[in-house]
Design a protein that fits this description.
Blueprint lengths: L10 E8 L6 E8 L6 E11 L1 H7 L17 E8 L11 E4 L2 E3 L5 H4 L10 E2 L18 E5 L4 E2 L6 H4 L5 H11 L8 E5 L3 H12 L3 E6 L5 H7 L4 E4 L3 H6 L4 E6 L8 H6 E9 L11 H6 L3 E4 L5 H13 L6 E4 L4 H9 L6 E5 H4 L7
Parallel strand pairs: 10-11, 10-13, 11-12, 13-14, 14-15, 16-17
Antiparallel strand pairs: 1-2, 3-4, 3-8, 3-17, 4-5, 5-9, 6-7
The structure holds NADP nicotinamide-adenine-dinucleotide phosphate (NAP).
Amino acid sequence: MANTLSNEKEVPAFGWAARDSSGILSPFHFSRRANGDLDITIKILYCGICHGDVHFAKNELGRHINYPMVPGHEIVGEVIKIGSNVKKFKIGDIAGVGPICGSCGKCSHCSKSWENSCPKTILTYNGHDYDGSITYGGYSNKIVVNENYAIIMPKGLPLEGAAPLLCAGLTVYSPMIHHGLCQSGQHLGIVGLGGLGHVAVKFAKAFNMKVTVISTSPGKKEEALERLGADSFLLINDQQQLKEAKDTMDGIIDTASGPHSLHPLIDMLKTCGKLILVGASITPPVLPYMPLMLGRKIIAGSAAGGMKESQDMINFAAKHNITADIEVIPMDYVNTAFERLAKNDVKYRFVIDVANTLNVSHID
Ligand code: NAP
């Protein structure tokens, strides 16, 4: 069904935007597209800070960035307006929005609910909306989204801890399901104990898998094992530990946010093991042919997930009481949070308390 706008007007909004590749954010007024028949308008309560927000704000991945750019794709908020044909939500419901807010709805990808792979997928920020306008993310007071690209937040899940699941949770859950790396007793390696990595540990333990955290940070060992429940922890540059881990893992989810060698990871996989790359780096990986060919090993990439997977993921999280470990911050701390995230100094996700700390008085 086409989304019609009837007599609706553009929605005035405000938030914090990066103005250039310094990545420094500052207050910003803008408009959202009008709330159409199939749209909901959400008053944003919380928004997580993904490392991808830093990559985009600083243009670290060599993409075209539409400055001023309002980041944020781990959005939870209250539905304050619904279009006349909205079926899934009513006013007052709590909705979540992740990294995508639209797609063509007709192609072979969309028909399988792989909207994230649709050639016309619309990113929640730095994308082009249906009407051609630039999309702005969740470091802002409101968002307008087609109801099919918002998920129903289960009751009982603390919203601030659930917000990061909309991207971090989805990005690790989706390949675990898609590649069958979710079977009880399988051995899963997780590279990088950050925002994505720590929720990957939680999902994998809920699937009753054996989990090894593969990290650059010796200081994270105790927490990984004792609090997050990983079964083992190995340092990515410890040759002895790498040797002992050879041929032991059914799969690895690589969430590292910086360049690193894939060779030792490929060696850790059993025959037919799968290495799934979800961390983003501008440096292309160098692949060793022989261990891949002789071990029939598979390397795949994965980006976020589709809308059905998003709802499945959040329902699974609610059932297993999975939320992110977070540090809740006020809006005006966001630039410090970016600096700390770039220095690997957060356990494990910053979440902006948007509703209580984004003040229009911040705006010039
Ligand atoms: P994060 O919280 O900063 O965590 C990344 C972790 O990677 C760090 O905590 C660190 O863990 C490890 N790391 C950092 N630099 C490394 C290096 N050079 N070599 C090896 N490990 C390194 O970031 P995040 O939010 O989880 O995001 C992780 C990556 O995924 C980012 O690149 C982000 O853009 C990307 N991402 C992709 C998708 C997607 O759809 N594919 C979605 C969201 C995010 P240790 O201290 O344990 O080593």
